[in-house]
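ESCALATION

Customer reports they have been waiting on this structure for their group meeting. Please prioritize. Original submission:
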Amino acid sequence: MIRSFLLIKFKPGTAADRIEAFRTGLAAVPFEGRRDAYDGVDLGLRDDTMDLAIVADFDDEAAYQAWVADPGHHEVRTELLAPIAERIERCQIKL
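Update from on-call: job pushed to the front of the queue and completed.
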């Protein structure tokens, strides 16, 4: 199994409804190879953190690569995330 971590820092002044539209849009993309996905807004306990974390589990590397190439996922990334993201960090690990 592959676990993917995505950390996002939004552009200053990004409206909450645009962040929610991204979260909702991403969750709505159907994908069979994704087992679980969780997201959460940073609690603001430190000044040097990202704004949103997404953790998703995939059956294997092939399923993760298929997710990256998925047209629905691509649309959410380009239409909903790219305009509001200042910085994105990624990490994938094998479980």
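Sent to customer with the following note: The mean pLDDT is 96.
Escalation resolved.
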